Amino acid sequence: MAESAEQAAGGGMTEYIHHHLHNLQWHVGSGVFSVINIDTVAVTLLLLAVFLGVFITAARRASAGVPGRFQAFVEMVVVGVDELVRETFHGSSKLIAPLSLTIFVLVFMMNFMDLVPVDLLPWLGRASGLPYLRVVPTADLNTTLGMALTVFLLIQYFGLKHKGPGLFFKEMFTAPFHAHGFMAILLAPVNLLLRLIEEAVRPVSLSLRLFGNMYAGELIFILIAVMTLGAGLAHGMTYVMGPVQGMADFVWTVFHILIITLQAFIFMMLTVVYLSMAAEHH
Question: By residue range, what is the domain housing residue 131?
Answer without folding.
Answer: 4-279
